[in-house]
Amino acid sequence: MADGKSGRSGEKLMGFIEKFGLWTDPQIRAAKEVDQRVEVEGIEVIRFSFPDQHGILRGKTLVAATLKSVFSNGVSVASSLLMKDTAHRTAISIFSAQNTTGMAEVRGSADMIMVPDPTTFKVLPWSPGTGWMLCDLYFRDGRKVPFATRHILRDMLERLEGKGYDFMTGLEVEFHLTRIEDPCLRPEDSGQPPKPPQVGLTHRGYNYLTELNYDQLDPIFDILRRTMQQLGLGLSSLEIEFGPSQAEMVFNADLGMQPADDMMLFRSAAKQVCRRHGYHVSFMCRPKLPDVMSSGWHLHQSLCDRKTGANLFMPRKEGEALSPLGRMWLAGLLDNAAPAAVFTTPTINGYKRYRPFSLAPDRAVWGEDNRGVMLRVLSGVGDKASRIENRVGEPAANPYLYLASQVAAGLDGVARSAMPGPSADAPYTVEAAMLPTTLTQALDALENSSVYRDAMGETFIKYLIEIKRSEIRRYELEVSEWEQREYFDIF
Fold first, then answer.
1. Whose CA is closest to 34, among 93, 114, 120?
2. In sequence order, what are the residues at sequence separation of 6 or more whose Cβ sits closer than 8 angstroms to the Cβ of residue 336?
3. What is the torsional sign of CA 339, 470, 266, 437?
4. Which residue, among 402, 306, 434, 295, has the nearest Cα to 352 in the 3D structure?
5. CB 227 within 8 A of CB 273
6. Whether 330 contacts 423, CB under 8 Å
7. Cα 49 to chain center, whole Å?
8. Number of Cβ atoms within 10 Å of the Cβ of 76
9. Which of 44, 266, 436, 481 is least enclosed, having the fewest CB within 10 Å?
């Protein structure tokens, strides 16, 4: 592969990125700045990572001397990485003549190219001499890989921009922070998936927002806080949640792709930093711990005028919850709640959170400043922070698909001039469409959704459904502890 050096006749060979015009002007400028920083700051290695279909970072670490070559041609990586389920098992055959994707480009685990995005470059505070940046995936002929979720969100945001809107979102993420008692690194603990670490609590729970519980977590919280601030992630608050060892971090709102990129780095950084200090962070919705409370990811969202930056959800007069545009967006989120659940709640475990009277939603309703609804509206005339808080998501969700699903649903509501109906003051008893209670139900809804097929493409929807159904099949074949207790002795 060409590396951008001069050929025999003295002409400069064109690299992959330049040949296919894969960088914007800001990325070209950022690449020059990164090149300088790597030299000045003594960076020794750089991690090039891409978010896979599950929102897990994968990639390669290269020595800093290769940076110019990477900025010319990217980094090759096996396409089979996009065919795996959450156990890292290849769920879609890469050797059959015709697989679910219908794409010869991935057959035989052929290479795809990770193209770095220099605007995402960071120096990792916990790993001396280590740089990091996100990458986008392309086939060798310069086409976007249609299963790459960063592309999917970018395409949705460009649709918004074409209508004169910017998407503003803010992250409010709950998780479980425990102490590692046994890392389970014995040979017999390996597997697909491997045995998880054995953990102990960091606080016993049920003392929501108490200072005493916060102080118990302060030693590791302080390390996490400094890390997030050094990474420039816009951390706003650190909080003690209700359940045992449960915590929450809230981040400032930002535009476009940035919150999704920040969520990827936050989750990965938190897990790595805590592991180095003997702690375990899990973004699993409902871990199998005694008296556990489910964790959610509440996504705050609004639209801004691209020219003026004005909040377009802000109500115009007293008595209105949102502007007309905001109400149409709200209606789109409600009407598409069932198929969107695959993106907001992509794990089998996440559906165990949807329980009545639990501060988590169980049906597609909205309300004004009500924590029992799916869509909580926080707004007021003159309130520039007027927004919709979607409380349906789990913290394990792929952030690019979560955000993209909201844009697709919201635009559908706007296109139909849909209206959301009245506010639900009794969110757990009002007559309304119920949320899916299983991932299977959510996948059935997605399979029948023209909104998401049109927005994300038939190829991607079929592909994602196949991977998620593979997880479900493995789950259904597993004999659970409940089944053993229920049937082993009585029959």
1. 120
2. 405, 408, 409, 412, 449, 451, 452
3. positive
4. 295
5. yes
6. no
7. 14
8. 15
9. 481
Question: What is the residue-wise DSSP string for 65-104?
Answer: GGHHHHHHH-EEEEGGGGGB-TTS-B-S-SSSSS-TT--G
**Burial class for 341, CB neighbours closer than 10 Å (0-12, 13-18, 19+):** buried
Give dist(CA 313, CA 379) in Å, integer. 8
pLDDT in tens, 394-418: 999 999 999 999 999 999 999 999 9
- Residue 432 CA to residue 423 CA, distance in Å, equals 11
Amino acid, res. 429:
T
R_g (Cα) of the chain, nearest Å: 23
Q: How far apart are CA 450 and CA 429, in angstroms?
A: 30
Alpha carbons 156 and 453: distance in angstroms, whole number: 13
Output the pTM of the full model.
0.94
Residue 433 DSSP one-character state: P
Average pLDDT over residues 285-305: 95
Q: 283 near 274, Cβ under 8 Å?
A: no
Please say if the pLDDT value at position 181 is more than 50.
yes
DSSP for 20-31, written as a single string: TT---HHHHHHH
